[in-house]
Write a structure and sequence with these properties.
The chain is of the alpha/beta class. 44% of the residues lie in helices and 18% in strands. The chain contains nine helices and eight strands. The strands form two sheets. The protein has a six-stranded mixed sheet with strand order 1-2-3-4-8-5, with helices on both faces. Strands 6-7 form a two-stranded antiparallel ribbon. A hairpin with a 3-residue loop joins strand 2 (73-81) and strand 3. Helix 7 (209-241) packs antiparallel against helix 8. The radius of gyration is 21 Å and the shape is globular.
Amino acid sequence: MNVEVKTPEQQRAEILAKIPDFRLMDDTYMSAFFNGRKDLIQFILRIIMNDEKLVVTNDKTQKVLKNLQGRSITLDVDTLLNGDREADVEVQQESSGAKPKRARFHSSMMDSNSLLPGEDFEKLRETYVIFITSHDYFGKGLPIYTINRHIEELDMMPFGDMEHIIYVNGENNADTPLGKLMHDFKCNDPKDMYYRNLAERADHLKNTEGGREEMCKIVDEISADRERQRVIRIAINLITRGKDTAQEIADLTGLTVEEVNQLAVQLASITA
């Protein structure tokens, strides 16, 4: 079977054709939308977390959290809040992408990537995994669902592990700041958005030459990064199998011999 290989020009034309229909509920567009825009990330998190004093001190879209022994993940938007809290913001179009165990895994990966070897567990940050879902995942009609751990035998006293999971109901259309935000997340036309700062960013990306170029560049970078992560997973599997030389793995994956050897050293340190 012949597989069509698209030229860069064809790929760019496809991206340009999709741009008018993009919404913030599309994870690739969301990543491009908030790329380098701490002000906009801070704006939406202040609404979602109902905290006007919240300050985003660092941000990264499409942040890869590596797990050499198992599954890695890519965070749509990863932020530091007030310097000592971390939030992962994800958009989920389908209910299957918002299952509780996925939220649990995201939270665990944030923890496992936050400490240096030998650091005390008390240095773990307070974390928030925030799923913005197209549908009301729990079906109870609430605008937001906050999940925290409690001790059942102690009158539901908070456990105090500082881990939080938040589901934001994308079906919420109430005349509230959060309801208006969810409306804007589902809009593909900037003219229909409530919040001017979000509308201006959307208009730039969708309706200016510079914005469309920015979109194409970011989508290309995301695609290239995802392909690299796929190649690394293949290399790790080959290293673990133990039947191929570093040169053979490099030839098969396109990585350099040095990169393959570095992966092998990292794997050895984990399994030692």
